[in-house]
Amino acid sequence: MTASSPRTQSRVRASELVGRNWLNTGGASLDLEGLRGKILVLDFWSFCCINCLHVLDELRPLEAEFQDVLVTVGVHSPKFDHEADPDALAAAVERYDVQHPVLDDPALTTWQAYSARAWPTLVVVDPEGYIAAHLSGEGHVAGLTSLVNELVAEHEAKGTLHRGSGPYVPPEPVARDLKFPGKAIALGARGTRQGSFLVADTGHHRLVEVAGDLTTVLRTIGGGVAEGVGEKGIVDGGPETARFNEPQGLALLPEAVAAAVGYDVVVADTVNHRLRGVSLADGTVTTLAGNGVQRLIDPERAREAADPEAGDGEAAVSLEPFGTGPLETSLSSPWDVVWSTVEDTLIVAMAGTHQIFGFDPRTGDLAVYAGTGLEGLEDGGPTEAWFAQTSGLAESADGTLWLADSESSALRSITPADPAAAGGARGREVRSAVGTGLFDFGFRDGAAGQARLQHPLGVAALPDGSVLVADTYNGAIRRYAPAGTAADGRATEAAVSTVARGLKEPSDVLVERDQDGAPVSIVVVETNAHQLVRLAVPQEYLQVDEGALQTQRPRTAITAGDLELAVSFAAPTGQKLDDRWGDPTQLKISSSPEDLLLGGDGTSTGLHRTLRINPEVAEGVLHITARAASCDGEAGQPIPDHAACHLYQQDWGIPVTVHAGAPDAAGEAAGVVPETRLDLDLRGIH
Hints:
Blueprint: E1 21-23, H1 32-35, E2 39-45, H2 50-65, E3 70-76, H3 86-95, E4 102-104, H4 109-113, E5 121-125, E6 131-136, H5 141-158, E7 184-188, E8 196-201, E9 206-210, E10 217-221, E11 247-252, H6 255-261, E12 265-269, E13 274-278, E14 285-289, H7 299-305, E15 334-340, E16 345-350, E17 355-359, E18 366-370, E19 390-395, E20 401-405, E21 410-415, E22 429-434, E23 440-444, E24 446-447, E25 458-461, E26 467-471, E27 476-481, E28 484-485, E29 491-492, E30 495-501, E31 506-513, E32 519-526, E33 531-536, E34 545-550, E35 556-559, E36 561-569, E37 575-577, E38 585-592, E39 597-599, E40 602-605, E41 608-613, E42 619-632, E43 645-659, H8 665-669, E44 677-685
Parallel strand pairs: 2-3, 3-4, 35-43, 36-44
Antiparallel strand pairs: 1-4, 2-5, 5-6, 6-44, 7-8, 8-9, 9-10, 11-12, 12-13, 13-14, 15-16, 16-17, 17-18, 19-20, 20-21, 21-22, 23-34, 24-30, 25-26, 26-27, 27-30, 28-29, 31-32, 32-33, 36-41, 37-42, 38-40, 38-42, 39-41, 42-43
């Protein structure tokens, strides 16, 4: 492990902030000279990334506490092609209520200058313009608070700290009926009017019931909207007093279940990290699950992961109920919910931990339904599968659960377990229908194996077994048709086609049916157009091929043979590494393709590893997960009983090119000098 060290060990001058445009500055461009005298936090983010959204909220109290000495600058460095669209970025800044200046960095210029390798990354610059810390991942606010206090004391004593207001200029609010709606459900005969819809009016922090014409507002539940700005919060009660915080998914419970529990709709109250219940009779809102504290990784699982005797660190995933009351259990950004008729329970897309949860409203039991909590695209059983920010759920007629796995741009499914089978819940099976990995996306129809999506957020099942996908960043509705048999008896392969395009970030899709159950129209939640739209079901589907893409991050040139990997971690002031059960740090390493690594892959303790790079593989991606556990306590003293403990984790996917032998003169002249050592910061203090 890397021990904690003083900040004065080295002084690196911060690089200039270079990009295409500035937002939230009133039209002004910022530079480091103009920010001199302030403590600067650079937040490297992308608006697709749930961990980045967590950091936005983590930073709000820090920004409020130190508003006269600290300036946060969001450096938006896109992962997906759509995120490089300046209009899409401006909409995201408004949607997520970003209250600090944002630099648009579409070419990753400033990202590269600060050696960022993962979303999110935080870089702290002191008032004299030197880098004070380099942090990866989320959960750093406690350490940032102590660091900012140290910098304030140091630079106030030196006379280099300048107090006063910062450069943030808020945009003018816009009044709308809906503001960035996220999800919707049809209420049928259970609404205030036959055929109405309940909409998660996410940007206004409320729910809105609209008539069948999709525009007439029938009633609102929660949020007090004034001059286009909704009031967020966590308050139970009637429709006028209740408060939400960026609600997303909605699920209408079966009438028998609703009668038993006293509410009709379950709401994924995303930023509050809670599930809420709504009675349609009077609009009363109650909290069902979640204590408001963001769930990270189970403490027991973290301890096992750091235990050399625990194998690969993934055995601690349990499908049994957590055993705590639902209001005492932490959740993490629940994004969508759906009722499973086969499992007779509510299914929750727990986007923040990259898992699927189950919640029984009658008993209050919460449990992991599927997923290890590691981010990626891995199929298999429920304790083996990896998900990537699942954001949309739907159930087909045969009980199959379909999922929009947004960060892997994938359509995936979970086959329910056979209740009579010996394996019980472990008999569930996760499969990928479309999508190949975290950094692969595009707009391509055709055979499912080569089709591409771009950050989909919604799904809906059709009666014929096919699935509609709200392909959000492609601005399209897509259709996945599974393999089957044509009318003439020919076998047909699984394929993807396009139903409609030209939409503004569609985030959900619903199917309207006639009395016989046949689909007659499609209702789309068009988030960035602030509306719901109705589309006809086409007789024929489009075929689009705009190519398969990969996230365009700079590749790191590395040498074949031995590559030293070192991850730095310095515990924040007031914390120390928790070594009571051995080394509390861990590395998990793999690669794409697998034969890129000839050695050094796998999971083991420590933050240093020697990797053996295959000279026969020209390029690939190194997948690195680093973890460190620390607890409140002072250096040189034992950790107190019942001390609060903290788990730090970050996943990196680092694209590399492999160069065999010593660098030649041509390579050096071209500026390509292969690295023999790779240094990463989990929490690096300078």
